[in-house]
C-alpha cells in the first residue's frame, strides 16, 4: 500500500532544483585520457547550437596545435585571451571579466582542471566556471577522468603517473549533463602514433608509460563508471523531485542489512560476492533503535565488528533510525537509493513470546517486498548449531578425558592439603577452579564433565559420612547442590570466553 509520503516529492530534491534556478547549465564532456576527442565533440555540439541561432562564444579552446581542432572553430565567435606575465614568461589566460561583460548564452571553456597563472581572480579554471554559471551563462567544458579528486590516487596506482591538477567531486555533481567521449584503446594508440595527440617525441614516451594499453583499458572503465554514477544520481534526483516510486531497473545496486546477529557477517560476504559479480555498488545499512542501547556488550561488539568488515570490503556505510516497522523503513530507503536487491541475515528460531513482542524484520521484508529482490543469508554451518536446545559436544580423545580426570585428582589433593586451614564448605572453590581450567582448554563439554566428576569427588571425600556417596545432613545436601550448579555455570562462562 502506498503511503501519502510516497506520493509527495522529496523536499531535498526540490531544494536542489530551486538552487539551480537562475544559474547557467553545465555540460561536461568527459574522457578516459587526452586525445579521445573531447574538445572536438564539444565544438561539434556548439556548432549545431550556433547553426540553430544560439549565442555561442568560444571563451577558451586549447587546440594544442591540432589542425582539425582549429578548423572546427571556424565560424564560432571567439573571446580574445588575456595576456599574463608569469615568472618572466608571457602567457595567456581566459578573460573572465570580458566573458561576463559579453554575456553569451553559451560559453565554451576547455580543460576544466587547468590551474590559472598567478594574479587572476581564481586559482583554478573550475572556479572561473562556477562564477560564469552563477551569472546565468551556460557552459560547455571538458575533463579527463584522472583529474577527478577522489579518483586521482586510483589513477596514480594504475598508471604510475600522479596528476597534479584536480577538481573536487562536487564540480562533477554540479553538471546538468555529462557526455562520455569514448574510443577503443587501439584507436587512441593509433592516433598517438600519428602525432594527433602529442608531438612525435612526446608521443613515443607516452606510449611506454601513461598510454600503455592496459592503463587505457583501466582508465576507460573508470570513465564509464564515473559517468554512470553521475547519470544515476541525476535519475534518483529526478525520481525524488517527481515522487516516482522506485526502484527503476537501471544501475545495479545492492543493499545489505546489518545488525548484531552472527548471520549479518555472512550477509556482508554474500553482498560483497554479488556486488563483485555484478560490478555494482553496495551499501551496508544499520537500522538503529532505542533498544540498541540495552544490547549486551557482546552484541554491540559483534555489530561494530560487522560494520568494520563491511567498510573493509568496500561497502558504503549508512545508518537509519526507525523505532517501528523497520522493514518498511528499509524498503523506503532502498527505493530512495534505487536499490533493487536487499540482502539480510536469516533470522534464528525465536521463542513464541519473542514473536509477540519484537518485529520479525526478515518476514516483514518478504511480505512487503513487492518489486524488490530479497536474499536471506544463512549463518555458517559451525554457527547454526548454536540455535535451539542441544547437548554440548564432549570430546572423544582419551587425552581430553585424562585432563579432566587429572584436574579433579589435583583439585582433591589440594583440597586435602587445605582442609586443615579452611572450612570444608570452602574446599568446593578448588574444584570450581579445576572446572574453569578445563573449560578454557577443552570447551563446554569437558567442563561439564569435570563439574560432575568434581561433584562426586567432593561428596565422596569431604561430606559426612566420608568415603560414601550418602549425605547425612540436609545442610550439606544444599551445599552440594549449589556447588554443582555453580560449577556448571562457571564452566559454561569460561567455555564461552574461550
Automatic annotation (TrEMBL):
Keywords: ATP-binding, Coiled coil, Kinase, Membrane, Nucleotide-binding, Phosphoprotein, Transferase, Transmembrane, Transmembrane helix, Two-component regulatory system. Residues 252-369 form the UspA domain. The keyword Kinase applies. The chain crosses the membrane at residues 429-457, 477-495. Residues 401-498 form the Sensor protein KdpD transmembrane domain. InterPro entries: Histidine_kinase_KdpD, KdpD_sf, KdpD_TM, P-loop_NTPase, Rossmann-like_a/b/a_fold, Sig_transdc_His_kinase_KdpD_N, UspA. One of its GO terms (molecular function) is ATP binding. Its main location: membrane. It is found in: Membrane. Pfam families: DUF4118 (PF13493), KdpD (PF02702), Usp (PF00582). It comes from the Bacteria. This is Two-component sensor histidine kinase.
Amino acid at each position: 500500500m502506498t503511503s501519502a509520503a510516497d506520493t509527495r516529492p522529496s523536499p531535498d530534491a526540490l531544494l536542489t532544483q530551486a538552487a539551480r534556478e537562475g544559474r547557467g547549465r553545465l555540460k561536461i564532456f568527459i574522457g578516459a585520457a587526452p586525445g579521445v576527442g573531447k574538445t572536438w565533440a564539444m565544438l561539434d555540439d556548439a556548432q549545431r547550437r550556433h547553426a540553430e541561432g544560439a549565442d555561442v562564444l568560444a571563451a577558451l579552446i586549447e587546440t594544442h596545435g591540432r589542425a582539425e581542432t582549429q578548423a572546427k572553430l571556424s565560424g564560432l565567435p571567439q573571446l580574445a585571451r588575456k595576456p599574463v606575465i608569469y615568472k618572466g614568461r608571457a602567457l595567456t589566460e581566459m578573460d573572465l571579466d570580458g566573458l561576463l561583460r559579453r554575456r553569451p548564452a553559451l560559453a565554451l571553456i576547455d580543460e576544466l582542471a587547468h590551474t590559472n597563472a598567478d594574479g587572476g581572480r581564481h586559482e583554478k579554471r573550475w572556479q572561473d566556471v562556477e562564477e560564469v554559471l552563477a551569472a546565468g551563462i551556460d557552459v560547455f567544458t571538458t575533463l579527463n577522468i584522472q583529474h577527478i579528486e577522489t579518483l586521482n590516487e586510483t589513477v596514480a596506482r594504475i598508471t604510475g603517473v600522479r596528476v597534479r591538477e584536480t577538481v573536487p567531486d562536487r564540480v562533477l555533481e554540479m553538471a546538468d549533463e555529462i557526455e562520455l567521449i569514448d574510443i577503443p584503446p587501439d584507436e587512441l594508440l593509433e592516433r598517438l602514433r600519428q602525432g594527433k595527440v602529442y608531438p612525435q617525441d612526446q608521443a613515443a614516451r607516452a606510449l611506454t608509460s601513461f598510454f600503455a594499453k592496459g592503463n587505457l583499458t583501466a582508465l576507460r572503465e573508470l570513465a564509464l563508471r564515473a559517468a554512470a554514477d553521475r547519470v544515476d544520481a541525476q535519475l534518483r534526483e529526478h525520481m525524488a523531485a517527481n515522487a516516482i516510486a522506485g526502484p527503476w531497473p537501471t544501475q545495479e545496486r545492492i543493499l545489505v542489512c546489518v545488525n548484531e546477529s552472527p548471520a549479518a557477517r555472512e550477509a556482508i560476504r554474500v553482498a560483497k560476492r554479488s556486488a563483485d559479480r555484478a560490478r555494482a555498488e553496495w551499501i551496508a545499512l544499520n537500522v538503529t533503535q532505542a533498544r540498541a542501547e540495552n544490547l549486551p556488550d557482546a552484541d554491540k561488539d559483534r555489530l561494530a565488528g560487522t560494520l568494520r568488515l563491511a567498510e573493509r570490503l568496500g561497502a558504503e556505510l549508512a545508518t537509519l533510525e526507525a523505532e517501528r516497522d523497520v522493514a518498511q523503513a528499509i524498503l523506503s530507503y532502498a527505493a530512495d537509493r534505487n536499490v533493487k536487491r536487499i540482502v539480510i541475515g536469516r533470522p534464528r528460531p525465536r521463542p513464541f513470546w519473542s514473536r509477540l513482542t519484537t518485529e520479525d524484520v526478515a518476514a516483514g521484508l518478504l511480505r512487503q517486498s513487492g518489486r524488490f529482490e530479497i536474499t536471506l543469508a544463512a549463518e555458517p554451518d559451525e554457527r547454526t548449531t548454536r540455535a535451539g536446545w542441544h547437548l554440548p559436544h564432549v570430546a572423544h580423545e582419551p587425552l581430553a578425558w585424562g585432563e579432566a580426570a587429572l584436574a579433579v585428582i589435583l583439585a582433591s589433593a589440594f583440597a586435602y592439603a587445605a582442609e586443615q586451614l579452611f572450612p570444608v564448605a570452602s574446599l568446593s572453590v578448588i574444584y570450581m577452579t579445576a572446572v574453569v581450567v578445563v573449560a578454557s582448554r577443552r570447551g563446554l563439554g569437558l567442563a561439564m564433565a569435570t563439574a560432575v566428576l568434581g561433584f562426586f569427588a567432593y561428596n565422596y571425600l569431604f561430606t559426612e559420612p566420608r568415603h560414601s556417596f550418602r549425605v547425612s545432613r540436609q545442610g550439606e545436601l544444599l551445599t552440594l547442590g549449589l556447588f554443582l550448579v555453580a560449577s556448571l555455570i562457571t564452566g559454561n562462562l569460561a567455555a564461552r570466553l574461550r
